[in-house]
TrEMBL record:
The lineage of its organism: Bacteria, Bacillati, Bacillota, Erysipelotrichia, Erysipelotrichales. Residues 143-216 form the DUF3991 domain. It comes from the Bacteria. This is DUF3991 domain-containing protein. InterPro entries: DUF3991. Coiled coil: none annotated. It holds the Pfam family Toprim_2. Gene3D superfamilies: 3.40.1360.10.
Length: 365
């Protein structure tokens, strides 16, 4: 019988967040071919459907990311957790734990994934990162990042110039991270798409390697790294500190990836070989607290040492807007937007006061 751990409210919120991320991205067909090693072929009905040689009554719907296993479940569609649980005869709780471990540690460069093009009714096998096609211009992406997210104009221009940001043909903004084993080679291995409209569309590109993250390299010789749970948060940190940025910034693909992304970069990123300080800056919510605790527990148990054998310090950073202790800030982008708001109002106020003084001076003359 499975020993189910009693979770605190914070732990429940964290688990809910990471399971939601997994369900959004992990496909049933990936588990079938890469975990269970099933051999599949295309259905004569449509390339949208795949059938395993080993189970004649099992059909995978690539478009909807569902499995139909008539011999065991009739016509009821299964999601990836239900499929794993049914196939291995394990509890839902155990299935989630096993799939989470697989999902957050896998390297898409080493596995095959099936992609389906609805407009062409074609499916094909892919390995590694698949980037969406670039739009003719980046107007909507620029407007979203500077007007909605309040990133600095100069930062957004540099990100586009460096190939870190572009707008795709669906008008999503795409953030691209390059292989940290050799940043100068500029091999894209990590990418996230985010909607620029009213929707909350936000998903990793197919084949994105979560553990790599998006690494923003500061000047050589920098010995500090700041780790954020999202790309927008990391870019917000850079904007907030644009006049005095004293750290590299490592941006992750969600709260559930922070520990693995940090560990991968500490092991493989040459820019961190002389590292002295790590600052963890997650969102200020329950999930962020749990992620921070996991990182701190790992650090306390194993420690972090640079190439010189010196201990690297680790600090969990909280943040807020100076002078407004009761103002609720939920993440670094929140802090940036609040900072920009008060700065813009300060400038307007000073301009108004200057105009009033000039008007009074003219009246006295």
């Amino acid at each position: 019988m499975t020993n189910v751990k009693i979770l605190s409210n914070s732990e429940k919120e964290y688990r809910k967040t990471i399971v939601s991320e997994m369900l959004k991205e992990l496909t049933c067909i990936e588990v079938a071919t890469n975990v269970f090693n099933l051999t599949v072929h295309k259905s004569s009905r449509s390339q949208r459907y795949l059938k395993p040689v080993e189970h004649s009554s099992m059909v995978f719907d690539i478009l909807k990311n569902k499995v139909y296993w008539n011999a065991r479940c009739g016509s009821v569609p299964l999601n990836v957790i239900e499929f794993y649980s049914e196939y291995t005869n394990t509890s839902t709780y155990d299935a989630i734990n096993i799939l989470l471990e697989y999902f957050y540690s896998r390297n898409p460069n080493e596995i095959e994934q099936y992609l389906y093009d609805f407009s062409m009714d074609e499916s094909h096998i892919s390995q590694g990162l698949v980037l969406t096609q670039k739009n003719d211009n980046n107007e909507r992406a620029i407007h979203y990042l500077t007007n909605e997210r309040k990133l600095s104009d100069s930062l957004v221009s540099k990100l586009i110039e460096d190939g870190i940001v572009y707008e795709d043909i669906y008008h999503n903004v795409v953030f691209v991270g390059y292989d940290v084993n050799n940043i100068k080679e500029k091999k894209p291995v990590f990418a996230i798409r985010r909607g620029t409209g009213n929707s909350k569309f936000h998903i990793d590109c197919k084949g994105s390697f979560k553990n790599n993250g998006l690494f923003y390299q500061n000047f050589e010789g920098i010995k500090k790294i700041v780790v954020t749970e999202s790309v927008i948060d990391g870019l917000s940190y850079i904007s907030l500190n644009r006049n005095n940025l004293t750290a590299h910034v490592l941006m992750c693909s969600g709260v559930g990836t922070m520990l693995n992304t940090l560990k991968y970069n500490l092991k493989n990123n040459p820019a961190l070989k002389n590292l002295e300080e790590i600052e963890i800056m997650p969102d200020l919510d329950d999930a962020g607290v749990i992620a921070s605790n996991k990182i701190k527990k790992w650090y306390d148990n194993e420690g972090v040492f640079n190439d010189n054998g010196n201990t690297v310090s680790l600090e969990i950073k909280t943040y807020g807007y100076d002078g407004k202790p009761n103002l609720k800030i939920k993440d670094l982008n929140d802090l940036l937007r609040v900072t920009v708001y008060y700065e813009e109002n300060r400038i307007l106020r000073e301009q108004s006061e200057l105009e009033d003084r000039e008007s009074n001076d003219n009246m006295e003359m």
